[in-house]
Design brief:
Distance between the termini: 51 Å
Radius of gyration: 17 Å
Shape: extended
Number of strands: 2
Largest sheet: 2 strands, antiparallel
Strand content: 15-25%
Structural class: alpha+beta
Length: about 100
């Protein structure tokens, strides 16, 4: 199988991303994230009993980066890293 051209690779990458419109701070904007990040964001929102849009607004209000998509990715990563740390602490206390 021959290597993919840059154009083919870019087209494949676009398929793995979703662009969604959200209202952030009263203004409509679009956010592009990879599918697993959208799914994780929705899972976190459900767990916290808020809408995905509500969670995006919370992330926006506390972000330190200029890019909202990056801020969402960092939030999702930090959320799951905190869960892993908590699980490790629980396991070490049980030992």
């Amino acid at each position: 199988m021959s290597p993919k051209t840059p154009h083919e690779q870019a087209r494949q990458n676009r398929r793995s991303e979703l662009k969604r419109s959200v209202v952030v701070a009263g203004r409509k904007t679009s956010v592009t994230l990879e599918v697993p990040f959208w799914e994780a964001l929705q899972d976190i929102a459900r767990e916290r009993a808020v809408t995905a849009t509500g969670l995006v607004n919370e992330i926006n209000a506390h972000r330190s980066t200029t890019n909202l998509s990056a801020a969402i990715r960092i939030y999702v990563l930090d959320y799951y890293r905190a869960q892993v740390r908590s699980l490790r602490a629980t396991r070490s206390q049980a030992s």
